[in-house]
Write a structure and sequence with these properties.
With 95 residues, the chain is an alpha+beta fold. Helices cover 39% and strands 36% of the residues. Strands 1, 2, 3, 4 and 5 form a 5-stranded antiparallel β-sheet that branches. Strand 2 and strand 3 form a beta hairpin. The protein is elongated, with a radius of gyration of 13 Å.
Amino acid sequence: MYVGALRMELYLPECRSLKEKRQVVKSIIDRTRSRFNVAVAEVDKHDLWQVCSLGITCVSNSEYSARETLSRVDRAVRSLGKAEVLDSPITIFTP
């Protein structure tokens, strides 16, 4: 069993308030969950209205599959155009 973790640091230049940030982040989270069947949560920077940290995880039977799933998630979030990705390291954990 392999657990993959992706931490995405996002910059939201169009957001002018926490309410706008919540709408954009909720949209990204909902699309990612439904399209890729991964767990997604906002994990840091809750009070800053133009910056967001998302934690995304998946479980797989191979390291390659976990890494590929998270790479596709990364590409999909970048292609949405709702946020600029500042950093997106992938980490694979093995038991």
